[in-house]
């Protein structure tokens, strides 16, 4: 673990601000087609895509005071994922995570997400935490429900240009739903 005050320890995870030193393992995770079954177009096909993505995420720490962490198990140096929250131009926190498929099904996404929501509430509590999840991504929808996030139904996601469920930590008045039934 680092002495960085932005780092967080959970029961099983060590979360440190993402940086380019984690490029190789994060590219491997983001290039794995198994991790992108719900959204194949989002897969990182070349390391340059992952590099640019990490640089943007790392820059958000300075700009916004909070961004994505690199995820490791507390007792191992291996990178198992990335996640956290970022501010959006719509004035909310967007919850995001991507874990190595070898570590799915162990509750790490929920544990990481709890830490991210907690950090968002400490940093800018007036802003809602949102997760936009594709209807067929049952794993992420289950995580959102375990976190106690409210499903506001389907609406058109302007970032992805497709229909998604909006989960939030509080009521959200301006969600553009309702959309087609899931």
TrEMBL record:
Annotated transmembrane regions: none
Keyword terms, alphabetized: Transferase
UniProt cross-references to Pfam families, sorted A to Z: Acetyltransf_3
Gene3D superfamilies: 3.40.630.30
Domain N-acetyltransferase positions: 13-173
InterPro entries: Acyl_CoA_acyltransferase, GNAT_dom, N-acetyltransferase
An example Gene Ontology molecular-function term: acyltransferase activity, transferring groups other than amino-acyl groups
Domain of life where this protein originates: Bacteria
Entry-linked SUPFAM superfamilies: Acyl-CoA N-acyltransferases (Nat)
Name of the protein: N-acetyltransferase
Organism of this sequence: Streptomyces tateyamensis
């Amino acid at each position: 673990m680092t002495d960085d005050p932005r780092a967080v320890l959970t029961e099983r995870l060590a979360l440190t601000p993402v940086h380019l030193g984690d490029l190789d393992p994060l590219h491997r995770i983001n290039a794995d087609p198994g991790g992108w079954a719900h959204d194949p177009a989002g897969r990182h096909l070349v390391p340059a895509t992952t590099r640019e993505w990490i640089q943007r995420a790392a820059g958000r720490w300075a700009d916004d005071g909070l961004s994505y962490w690199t995820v490791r198990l507390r007792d191992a140096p291996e990178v198992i994922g990335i996640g956290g929250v970022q501010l959006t131009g719509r004035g909310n926190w967007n919850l995001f995570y991507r874990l190595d498929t070898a570590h799915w099904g162990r509750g790490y996404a929920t544990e990481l997400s709890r830490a991210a929501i907690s950090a968002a509430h400490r940093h800018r509590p007036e802003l809602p935490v949102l997760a936009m999840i594709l209807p067929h991504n049952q794993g992420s929808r289950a995580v959102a429900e375990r976190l106690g996030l409210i499903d506001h139904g389907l609406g058109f996601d302007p970032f992805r240009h497709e229909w998604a469920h909006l989960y939030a930590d509080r009521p959200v008045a301006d969600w553009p739903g309702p959309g087609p039934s899931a």
